[in-house]
Amino acid sequence: MAEQFPQPAQQQLYSLNLGPQHPSTHGVLRVLLTLDGEYILEADPIIGYGHRGHEKMGENRTYLQFMPNASRMDYLSGLLYNHGFCLAVEKLAGIEPPERAKYIRVICAELNRISSHLLWFGTFLMDLGAFTPFLYCFDDRENILDILDRVSGSRLTYSYCRFGGVARDVDDVFIEQTRAFIKRLRSRWPDYHNLVTKNVIFIHRVRDVGIIDKDLARRFGVTGPNLRAAGVAFDMRKVEPYEVYDRFDFEIPTGSKGDALDRYRVRLEEMEQSCRIIEQALDQMPDGPYRQERVRLKVKPPRGEVYFAFESARGQTAYYLVSDGSPYPYRVHVRVPSFGNLHCLTEVLKETLVADAIAILGSIDIVVPEIDR
Amino acid sequence: MMEAAATSGAYWLRLIVGLVIVLIFSQLNALFLVWLERKVAGHIQVRLGPMEVGPHGLLQTIVDGIKLVGKELITPARADRKLFVIAPVLVFMPVLVAFLVLPFGPELIIRDMNVGLLLIFAFSTFSVLAILVGGWASNNKYALLGAIRSVAQAVAYEIPLLLSVMSVVLMVNSFRFSELVMAQQRVWFVFLQPVAALIYFICATAETNRAPFDIPEAESELVAGFHTEYSGMRFGLFFLAEYTNMFIVCAVATSLFFGGWHGPFGFSFKIPGVVWFLAKTYVLLFVLMWFRWTFPRVRFDQLMNFSWKVLIPLSMLNLVITALVLKLV
């Protein structure tokens, strides 16, 4: 028998294509895994399946025309991208929006951040095999979408901000709805904690799994909640306050180890901090115009360049715009956080199980179309 | 005696009628359970579940079944054709055998064999073989991973499952279902053997590949696990077998630990035994569904650790204590 079936000289490795079509790759991501049994020896994320040429499109459109593109890169935090693009152009062209507009923008941006984190919460738990929290989160998220739908006219890919203001003023109903939503969300925390955070199976699945420490995070340019989970209190809203973020009292939640559990805790806490920002912004919001008197549809920034970084739901995002004085930007470049967050996986996924790989992939909260652009 | 019985016409009539009833009941029951699962899931998730076809969507699963029958049976190009076709049949046939010995009521046992309990566990092992065959023949890495996981899981969980059952068998001194149930006329075994009941139920969840132990078909990890490549009614058979298996493990739990057709503490409230039996089984089934829509999935190595390091020693200890107590009393 032994002669018939000779033992292989070495253990047989095999490769597995995780994606591009797979239930938990969050878009069209492909990870090429080299496996020994269920253990991952090497992981190679392969991107580019969703490339739409947003940056090149930017060169052929006016600044205003590029605005819808901005929110389509990261479709989960579209308003944050939209907001960031507006700020970048305003910085380049020297436009100063009125006070009220700034507050409206911050409120909507933070609402969008919460909706993005809520969706992450649901999909992360779904990656771990728990289906029910996903629907609870979508139920809550639906409220945000309704609120933003009322003021901006869209539910996912917002183009609400304008150079020098916002497209439409908010009314009392908006304020009422927002306050009601925050109250509702806060009443939901105990449910989430009972269902998920206190669950033994959940804790065992995420504790000490996929550790991204400070050093690794720095080498790969990991930002956002993933970096903060490693214990670095780096948030563009605090480090380089833009808009009116320096007027609010909020904290930057950090973790200690940088494992999936820390990332989970940081994001949950961030939602609470966003609620605090929204509440303060609602209290402080002044009356007045919601945009500049003369609406600028065709911006012609002076010759020059600008690099503007802001905090999207996934980390430090930046626009680099070069203007040659014409209504069309000479170059539009976007720095997306998911790129660094994803590529640290080449090291993090080593010597983990396939099941862990899915948990880690879920915990870093990537949006692949944002990387592919 | 067996020979004499086997030749009599009544024996054959009883067997054939029984088989037909089993076939119809197991199919309808599986369809009903799929509907129930979707309803339970819906209500746990603050939504309604199927509502469109029939009253409260009752006919939804039947329509789904018709759709599955109408679908093309795709065999992957480089699959092992014979094994690929056999696997769904292999998974479904053994579960029907179990119905022959299940004690639905005092008079409602098709064959009250003296090895009834043993027969069920012997045949339930077949489903693992079917999963292995199906996963292997699919020529798909996800399916293969699912199949490997399934075998490892079955080996790990059948030991504590049988050990926990043994402690009940020790108390009754029989594998015959009717005797096992009759012994619980006054007190259900769940009160005398709570540890065994708990271990049995955990293992039964793992045995039927249900969440949180659904790692052979872990959707977010292995796409669909061992049945990734199956389509149409071949997939349908795997699906129905899962729900029929669920019913069987819950029915066994009912007869071993929850008094079978007896009411609580000897009170039957003039309700027929079969109603008691089905009611208890469905309550247990509901608990299984409740598990699935509440818990995240356990990781594979944690699952194995839990079985080998916790459940097996515990069930062993339980068995030894049971034996000691029985010897002393």
Automatic annotation (TrEMBL), chain A:
Q: Which GO terms describe its molecular function?
A: NAD binding; NADH dehydrogenase (quinone) (non-electrogenic) activity; quinone binding
Kindly state which keywords UniProt assigns to this record, in alphabetical order. Cell membrane, Membrane, NAD, Oxidoreductase, Quinone, Translocase, Transport, Ubiquinone
Query: One of this protein's Pfam families, by short name?
Result: Complex1_49kDa
Q: Any idea where this protein resides?
A: Cell membrane
Which GO cellular component terms, listed alphabetically, does the Swiss-Prot or TrEMBL entry include?
plasma membrane
Q: What is its EC number?
A: 7.1.1.-
Where does the NADH-quinone oxidoreductase subunit D domain start and stop, copy by copy? Answer: 127-373
Can you state which reaction this protein catalyses?
a quinone + NADH + 5 H(+)(in) = a quinol + NAD(+) + 4 H(+)(out)
- Where it mainly occurs, coarsely classed, is membrane
Instruction: Write down the membrane topology.
Output: Peripheral membrane protein
Provide the assembly information: NDH-1 is composed of 14 different subunits. Subunits NuoB, C, D, E, F, and G constitute the peripheral sector of the complex.
Q: Which family does it belong to?
A: Belongs to the complex I 49 kDa subunit family.
Role this protein plays: NDH-1 shuttles electrons from NADH, via FMN and iron-sulfur (Fe-S) centers, to quinones in the respiratory chain. The immediate electron acceptor for the enzyme in this species is believed to be ubiquinone. Couples the redox reaction to proton translocation (for every two electrons transferred, four hydrogen ions are translocated across the cytoplasmic membrane), and thus conserves the redox energy in a proton gradient.
Descriptive protein name: NADH-quinone oxidoreductase subunit D
Which source organism does the UniProt entry give? Answer: Desulfacinum infernum
